[in-house]
Write a structure and sequence with these properties.
This protein is of the alpha/beta class. The chain has two domains: about 230 residues, Rossmann fold; about 80 residues, formyl-coa transferase, domain 3 (2-Layer Sandwich). Helix content is about 40%, strand content about 15%. The protein has 17 helices and 13 strands. The strands form four sheets. The chain has a six-stranded parallel beta sheet, with helices on both faces. It has a three-stranded antiparallel beta sheet with strand order 9-10-11, with helices on one face. It has a two-stranded antiparallel ribbon with strand order 3-4. The radius of gyration is 25 Å and the shape is elongated. The chain starts with 9 loop residues before the first strand and ends with a helix. The model has no long low-confidence stretch (mean pLDDT about 95).
Length: about 375
């Protein structure tokens, strides 16, 4: 659908790990020509991570399709000169250098503007490039901890829990991609060189936007609710006789419907529960009644029975079982690698905007696979 949107955009991807490579891949899915410049000898840090598919890290494979790989040794002055020649012809540079490395290599924004007066530089960091933030390296899990995100994740009385997916890396990569799109539009309008600064700490606070607003309003820190929600009750995972399922009610009519279906209609008129704000105050009492009810029948019964009442319910799937859902097949979430010339490859998740699967142009490249080709074009 958008596979040719940025076909004239040339990107130099100097980033590693997840956030920067995801931003570059997103634009690559939209047709941009992305040169992934990897530092000798090992390349992108994620190439060393497990698990692997046919010897290649699955983390690397997940965020690096639609790129060409150029291997350079940043300790060699001639390779830095080669890089600067590429930048002179590029539209966008994405980097996630550790604090101070960009300036040391002569790749600061001020220096890049001398090479390319219209360059868009996207710098990705944990805490930004201010006087304080520039001195603080960090990763997704660290920023989850220091931002407060971990403090209300998990169950009461238990240690803080990291959100397992790399939510800050991935959301920062998404914000970076959108910022680059906006900067490209500005450049078309004569804006000139632009420096985008995407930071994981910013993404963390936006993910917590309503929790932060709630704290500002009340002065009360968010509490750990396990699978529950701070602004709706009942809205959590419940145990049936043979497993667990998720129930989500987000309005008074839904609560009344639930109570009538379970033959506990008296709860709907109980002053403690007749409004959402009151149900939140008395969530433990409601949960106690519901847990007793739900423990009497298996998950399959409750999924069918409650769905028939027009309520929002679903199983708590493993990844393997989730991948088998009919709706996943209906959505066509995976690229067929063999249909795109990657006979030994694994299926990769398409970008959410790439509904027709047309955004696949190149498999994730081997380390330095296109070095000769790129250097030849540079002469």
């Amino acid at each position: 659908m958008f596979s040719q949107t940025y076909k004239n955009l040339n990107i130099i991807d100097l980033s590693t790990n997840i956030a920067g490579p995801l931003a570059a891949m997103t634009l690559g899915d939209m047709g941009a020509d992305v040169i992934k410049v990897e530092r000798a000898p090992g390349g992108d840090d994620t190439r060393q991570l497990t698990p692997t598919w046919e010897g290649v890290s699955t983390v690397y494979l997940s965020v690096n399709r639609n790129k060409r790989s150029l291997l350079l040794d940043f300790k060699k002055s001639e390779d830095i000169r080669t890089l600067k020649k590429l930048i002179a012809k590029a539209d966008v540079v994405i980097e996630s250098f550790p604090p101070g490395l960009g300036a040391k290599l002569g790749l600061s924004f001020d220096e890049l503007k001398l090479i390319n007066a219209d360059i868009i530089l996207c710098s990705i960091s944990a805490f930004g490039d201010g006087e304080i933030g520039a001195k603080k390296p960090g990763y997704d899990a660290l920023v989850q901890a220091v931002s407060g995100l971990m403090s209300f994740t998990g169950h009461k009385g238990q240690e803080p829990v990291r959100i397992a997916p790399s939510v800050l890396d991935i959301s920062t990569g998404m914000w970076a991609a959108m910022s680059i799109m906006a900067a490209a539009k500005n450049r078309d309008n004569g804006e000139g060189a632009q420096h985008i600064r995407s930071a994981l700490i910013d993404s963390a606070f936006l993910l917590m936007c309503h929790q932060v607003a709630g704290f500002k309003a009340t002065g009360i820190d968010p509490e750990k609710l396990g699978s529950g929600a701070p602004s709706a009750v009942p809205y959590r995972v419940y145990s049936a006789s043979d497993g667990s399922f998720m129930l989500a009610t987000a309005s008074d009519p839904q609560f009344i419907r639930l109570c009538n279906a379970l033959d506990i209609s008296e709860l709907a008129t109980d002053p403690r529960f007749e409004s959402m704000s009151n149900r939140i105050k008395h969530r433990d009492q409601i949960d106690g009644v519901l847990e007793n009810k739900f423990s009497q029948r298996p998950v399959a019964h409750w999924l069918s029975f409650l769905a028939d009442q027009g309520l929002s319910v679903g199983p708590v799937n493993s990844v393997s079982s989730a991948l088998e859902m009919d709706v996943i097949k209906e959505r066509g979430l995976f690229h067929n690698p063999k249909a795109n010339g990657w006979n030994s490859g694994m299926p990769l998740i398409r970008s959410p905007f790439d509904l027709d699967g047309s955004g696949w142009h190149r498999r994730p490249p081997a380390l330095g696979e296109h070095t000769e080709e790129i250097l030849k074009d540079l002469i």
